[in-house]
Amino acid sequence: MLTVRAPATSANLGSGFDVFGVALSHPADVVRVEKADEVTIEVTGAGSQYIPEDPDKNTVGAVAEALDAPARIKIDKGIRPASGLGSSAASAAAAAVALNELYDRGHSREELVPIAAKGEAVVSGDAHDDNVAPAIMGGFTIATDDGVTKVDADVPLVACLPDIVVSTRDARNVVPDGAKVSQLVETVGNAATLTTGMHRDDPDLVGQGMYDSVVTPARAKLIDGYDDVREAAFDAGATGVTISGAGPAVLAACHDGDRRSVGTAMLEAFDAHGVDARVHQTRIGDGATLY
User: Fold this and answer.
1) Segment-wise mean pLDDT, segments of 10 residues, the chain, 291 residues
2) CA–CA separation, 291 vs 268, rounded Å?
3) 3-state secondary structure 126-147
4) Residues with catalytic roles
5) How far is CA 234 from CA 117, 191, 197, 237, 262, in A?
6) How far is Cα 20 from Cα 150, in angstroms, rounded to an integer?
7) Residue 140: beta bridge partners?
8) CA separation, residue 10 to residues 49, 116, 272 (Å)
9) Per-residue DSSP letters for the chain?
């Protein structure tokens, strides 16, 4: 039996829609695999009652099929489904790393990204690399058609997860079909600023580069209290705030000493809207770890 821990992730980061992603130091999923004649899946942990164990409907089933690696697979969910924190990507990433090792398939971490993305497609309908790339490789990742670029960044983050559900499909349906040239110019500038901030481990530049005027405002309407939560986080010291992935989690960049105050402010802002939430004081972390 092999065990792999794969981290929660945050995709988009505002200005990097479908391109940027970061691995979070916590929370995480733990996946255990053992060789078998056919694929079976057992799911426990956060939101496990909502996750199908049918291999044809579970992200890890698609990964096992792509690797031709039948196994008994046990998933312990530390990341709630439909959270915006890469729940399905973490399971797919952990399974890809574990099964690749179990059957000695010889794929590199970068080669496992599109394989894990096939599992993501089971949930979202499309294979996207922006969550599975950091879940497998760690750090800050830039996923394009040409492959994945990784930066070993270290930036403090706060992820606030409200007790509401936003499905990936719904979040993609509200994305505008186009943008003004001025918005494109602004987004390119912000994305470049964020990338520079990641190279420098600079929370101020990263936060400045998280602003997005195209996708985030459309998705914010799906999250009760988002504008007030964002404002409260800034007032408490956040350097940047955006929706994590498809939501409803809200991600804030900040300095180390401000994580507690930022998290508390976000919780209180959600509470003012009658929404329960929980906070993860986290940072950019490692990718899938094989034990």
Assistant:
1) 97 96 97 97 94 93 95 97 93 97 97 90 74 97 95 98 83 85 96 98 98 94 96 98 95 97 98 97 97 91
2) 38
3) CCCCCCHHHHHHCCEEEEECCE
4) 120, 168
5) 34, 20, 18, 5, 8
6) 10
7) 22, 151
8) 23, 16, 25
9) -EEEEEEEEEE-TTTSTTTEEEEEEEEEEEEEEEE-SS-EEEEEETTGGGS---TTTSHHHHHHHHTT--EEEEEEE-S-TTSSS-HHHHHHHHHHHHHHHHTT----HHHHHHHHHHHHHHHHSS---TTHHHHHH-SEEEEETTEEEEE----EEEEEEES----HHHHHHTS-S---HHHHHHHHHHHHHHHHHHHHT-HHHHHHTT--SSHHHHHHTTSTTHHHHHHHHHHTT-SEEEE-TTSS-EEEE--GGGHHHHHHHHHHHHHHTT--EEEEEEEB----EE-
Residue 129, CA distances (Å) to 15, 114, 115 in order:
16, 7, 10
Q: Which of 156, 137, 142, 141 is nearest to 207 (CA)?
A: 156
pTM, whole model, 2 decimals?
Answer: 0.94
Q: Which two tokens stand for residue 248?
A: 């409803």
> How far apart are the C-alpha atoms of 218 and 251, rounded to whole Å?
16
Listed residue (163, 117, 126) closest to 21, CA to CA? 117
> Do the beta carbons of residue 248 and residue 223 sit within 8 Å?
yes
